[in-house]
Amino acid sequence: MELLLAAVIVAAVIFAGSNGFHDAALTVGNAVVGRAMRPGWALSLAVIFNFIGALLGEGIAIVVANQIVLFSGSADLILTSLIIAFVAATAWSLFTYYLALPVSSTHCLIGGLLGAGIVFGFSINAEHAMNNVVWPLLLSPILGFILAWVLTLVLSKVLASTPPKPLYRGARMVDSVLTASLSLVHGVQDAQKVAALVMVGILAVEATPHDGLSIVEISWPVRLLIAGALALGTGLSGWRVVQTLSVRMVRLDPLKSAVADGAASILMYTAALIMRVPVSLTFVLGSSILGTQYAGRKGHARARYFLPMFGVWVLTIPAAALLALVLGWIVKAAVGL
């Protein structure tokens, strides 16, 4: 059992690292493309604020750990299902990174949890999962698009008489601050979910076999471990997905970069601190970037790049769930669980 728990922790650390590697450059991508910050400085800022954000808040973590899959029964089954969920989520995340497509680590993890929960016979709280997880994940990109569209339209008219040079200089200054803001909320959103599931594994070892597991708080050693893994992945972050979202898919100027980052920040903090529901920074930011392109005559959104993004947005949860189902069936057949 101790080996299974160790495997859960290792799988969680790898997933958190891959999350930072895949997603974190997105928090600084617009600022780098808009020349608000140099890549090295921007990534260093992202590492620091991702780590800080990963230590904050528990509301989202409690939702993910307690209100999707209802873990109970044998500790071996619970630990095995957690390992499979993390493996499936990591595999899909790395596959989409290879394709240079943005993906939501939250979608990956939710899909992995649902698939593993089904194959090992845990109860799925469908109502809570839909209301508190699936609907926020699906609707938040639509809201990101609308908010960015409105902000771009309003600011373009209000600032129409401002000369481009001072306008862009001010936009770059604002975007530098927003880069730190996005990195902080990325840590709040993404790390706590992983840490909560590690706590599920720890409680499974400590609880009696038929207890229903409910996470109340996350221990500081677990917080620090996952925060460190997320920060390390952020520091090693690649730029393939940034090239797709901020360069190939659209044509951004400093003002539109700042508007997209601002719209994404507003929605991410609202979800994390007020509504306490998980949302995807990747798709909120991607849709916000698209929203800036359709608010005027100078948008250059390229369908051959954003249509695959929508495809991944729709497919990730079922794809990760299917992968977890297949892995779970293989493990059950091999081990006889």
From TrEMBL:
Coiled-coil residue spans: none
Key words of the record? Membrane, Transmembrane, Transmembrane helix, Transport
Q: Where are the transmembrane segments?
A: 41-65, 77-98, 104-126, 133-155, 220-242, 262-285, 305-331
User: Its membrane topology, per UniProt?
Assistant: Multi-pass membrane protein
One Pfam family name is PHO4
Signal sequence bounds: none
Q: What InterPro entries would the database entry show?
A: Phos_transporter
Subcellular location per the Swiss-Prot or TrEMBL entry? Membrane
Q: What is the protein name for this chain?
A: Inorganic phosphate transporter
Q: Which organism is it from?
A: Brevibacterium spongiae
